Amino acid sequence: MTDPDANPICPLCARPIPEDAPQSLHHLIPKLKGGKGGPTVLLHHICHREIHASLSEAELARNYSTIAALQQHPRLAKFINWVQKRPPDFSSRVPGKRRKR
Prior knowledge:
By secondary structure, the chain is α+β, with helices and mostly antiparallel strands. It contains 4 helices and 2 strands; from the N terminus they run ββαααα.
């Protein structure tokens, strides 16, 4: 039985999302690529920002429309390994976009 008062778990980094921590919904298929009204997942805001700093909308729609696929992306895998060592309410400025255009 799950505790109704327990914090949700971020599916990307597997850390709890405290109620007062910055959080956001991620469309698994970007809205601009046909995902409006499609499945969403609740993520830490820092995790969500890293996804969008790493991948374009087209890449997300084409190859990274699942949590498992996102976790396999080299930059995101490195980020996940790093952020898992931080407290659940950790927040930081995400570096600028490093993806190739």
